[in-house]
Amino acid sequence: MKYEKWSLGYFFLKQYVRFIDFIIHKKIIVNGKENIPKKVPIVFAPNHQNALSDPMAILLHTPFQPVWLARADIFKNKIAAFLLRFLKIMPVYRLRDGKEQLSRNDKTFADSIRVLENHVPLALFPEAAHSGRRQMLPHKKAVPRIVFLAEEKAGHNLNIHIIPTGIYYSSYWKFNRTVIVNLGAPVRVNDFLEEYAENPNNATQQLKDALYNAIEPLTLNIKSKEHYEDFETIREIYGKEYLRRQNKPFSSTDLFHSDQQLVRHLDEYEAQSPEKTNELVKLTKDYKNLLKKHGLKSWLLDKSNYNALKIVRNKLILLIGLPVFLMGFVFNAVPFFLIDSFSRKKLKDIAFRSTFFLVLGLLFFPIVYLLELWAVSAFLPGIWFKLLFLGSLPFAGKLAFRWYILFLKTWGRGRLLYLRLFCKKTFVQLQSKKEKLYSALESMIIV
Questions:
Q1: DSSP bridge pairs for 69
Q2: Which element (helix H / strand E) includes 271?
Q3: Angle CA(81)–CA(50)–CA(394) in degrees, nearest 5?
């Protein structure tokens, strides 16, 4: 198979998956497209936290048909191998696959060189494994080895540029999430070739370190091992408030950069004051547990949410949008909840849930939609009404989900208003714990 050749079948599949990707996500933001050089071979090197969603984040939102390198053991099944090759994924054999298999990498490397020579992007994960956390893993040597070998076999004439890439998800698996793809300034392999000629091991380490240092600023990297979950909770509770206190306008990208700064403060605070960090964590857990006990989210305690008029306004919107919700729910509930329930029960690694949902959704939703069209076609006059109904189903499902989120927010506001009016002791306790936590965080940041 010639991976570097443009594929019509791949193109049509990409458009279909791109549409599904649009339905799944609330926002898709790609920063740094100007960093992708033209007329030179490029290698995308992204962080890896969310299984198949990570390559989707790159290939769906750049104009290429990139060729990916993946571990060879996933090619063992013949059907899987056929599909993977159709998706422009090449196998890389490791020592654990058997020493006798390593020679098969010669073909992979030869194919990689041909791909790069034809200015088709390669892509692989420097971490060589996904973490399922907002936490970068140590880099392996695969990227440096492959680019150096490619340059060596091509007589150092390729001029490969590696694009450090950071991928961020507001949630690893929830529907209607935000994804941010940050493309950094290229790392030029030519800058390391002189050292490689003298000391290949040293050059490999240097390039590996350079890539890590280039990718980390493009990600949200919580370094703490002991308090990872606690720092993630603090970010979720305090992140928007921290952005507001910097007098910066709200946007998903601004919040991402603000969160980067916040988690850096937390990591530094833990290193400098472990005992005070434990006190901060205790305040966080106490506040989180109290919120959970009363079925509330922290943002509800912001003064701007006390307004009863917002509850009335939201109820009016919910009432007007109820028919759309009912349509979207009725025609999307069966495939959505079946896939969701199955993935929760069968998948222990949360990083695979979005992948599982995407793959099954690509297959299952169209089948269900066609069956539903057949069931109601007698009530729809003409072919155009039938096609309009069929085309509206995914959009109705997305609107139904947004209606449901607004319903939950309105219910939360109503519950908080009830506590404020009739359970003042609980309301004051919630406010007090929030203020103590915010005060401790402000002191930490000032320090």
A1: 90
A2: helix 252-272
A3: 85
Task: Supply the pTM of this predicted model.
Answer: 0.91
Return the structure tokens found at 281: 């964590």
12's CB contacts (< 8 A; 6+ apart) are none
Q: List alpha helices for 75-227, DSSP H.
A: 78-86, 105-117, 142-153, 193-198, 200-215
For residue 442, which amino acid is it? E
Tokens 């603090």 belong to residue: 234
Number of other residues whose CB lies within 10 A of the CB of residue 431: 13
From 201, 203, 184, select the one nearest 193 (Cα to Cα). Answer: 203
Give the separation between CA 75 and CA 327, rounded to whole angstroms.
41
- Residue 74's CB is within 10 A of a number of other CB atoms, namely 12
Q: Mean pLDDT for each 10-residue chunk of the chain (447 residues)?
A: 87 92 92 93 93 88 90 78 85 76 80 87 89 90 89 88 96 89 97 95 96 97 95 95 89 95 96 94 96 93 75 94 96 91 77 80 93 94 94 96 95 91 94 95 81
The number of residues in the chain equals 447
212 within 8 A of 139, measured Cβ to Cβ: yes
Q: How far apart are CA 303 and CA 288, in angstroms?
A: 19
Q: Which helix (H) or strand (E) holds 25?
A: strand 25-31
Residue with tokens 């959970």: 292
CA dihedral (201, 206, 209, 211) in degrees, to 10, reads: -110
